[in-house]
Amino acid sequence: MNTLPLTCGIGLRAPHYREVLSTRPATGWLEVHSENFFEGGQPVAMLQRLAEIYPLSLHGVGLGLGSAERPDPQHLAAWRRLVEEVRPAAVSEHLAFNHVGGRYANDLLPLPYTRHMLDLVSANVREAQDAIGRPLMLENLSSYLAFPDSEMDEATFLAELVQRTGCGLLLDVNNLYVNQQNLGTDVEAALATLPADAIGEIHLAGFTERNGLLVDTHSRPVHAPVWALYRKVLARIGPRPTLIEWDLDIPPLDTLLAEADKANRLLDEVRDHG
């Protein structure tokens, strides 16, 4: 069950571990990448200390639920241990492909949105949820190509996964905007297709332009058109727990907190006019 508060949190990365523990900044919640804590020991002890102060979200980046092969049992076992040790408020992963034949790509790769893949991914999601003993939220992907044999769009694929597996959704607004600019994704149609009640979290991040493409680098402040799209999403579905992601060129903690304050002001506006 997702018990994140209806406020904005920040993605906690290694450069800020000590500062957050020592200063306890006023942020709604924290999200960490699950795989960074699979080895246990002091990192997990730190998370347990943080869990006494903040609601925590565990965000997976390596399971590859969009792969045609089943999830790695060792990965699932490590994830379950971490969930049991930390008792997070939410758990999420990406709708992405990353492995085949025992070989792994250190990336979040797109997949063809076909009925056959829907069957395979549904089985993967059910297996993962059974393994960790709770529902997952799945995140929409930033993509730079589209498969010509896809039989549906990503939003329809995600909506079908929700129906088949009972999973939730993590709506990455930056990814929506990036795909709109790169691939011509119809954002209005996507928002109309995604089941609003299943959306339990929103991500915001910055992109970088490279050779005419927008790349989801998580290395910049949130851009103005993404803020505008976030405002539109909130007006449509209502307030949701929101996260500021920043994974490269990580700035001072105060910069992250200032971005979260912007999101909180928009969340307050929606509540005030709700």
From TrEMBL:
Which SUPFAM superfamilies does the UniProt entry name for this protein?
Xylose isomerase-like
InterPro entries associated with the record? MbnB/TglH/ChrH (IPR007801), Xyl_isomerase-like_sf (IPR036237)
Question: One Pfam family this chain carries?
Answer: MbnB_TglH_ChrH
Q: Per its UniProt record, what HAMAP family does this chain match?
A: UPF0276
Q: Which family does it belong to?
A: Belongs to the UPF0276 family.
Question: What is this protein's name?
Answer: UPF0276 protein EV669_103140
The species this protein was found in: Gulbenkiania mobilis
Upper classification of the organism: Bacteria, Pseudomonadati, Pseudomonadota, Betaproteobacteria, Neisseriales
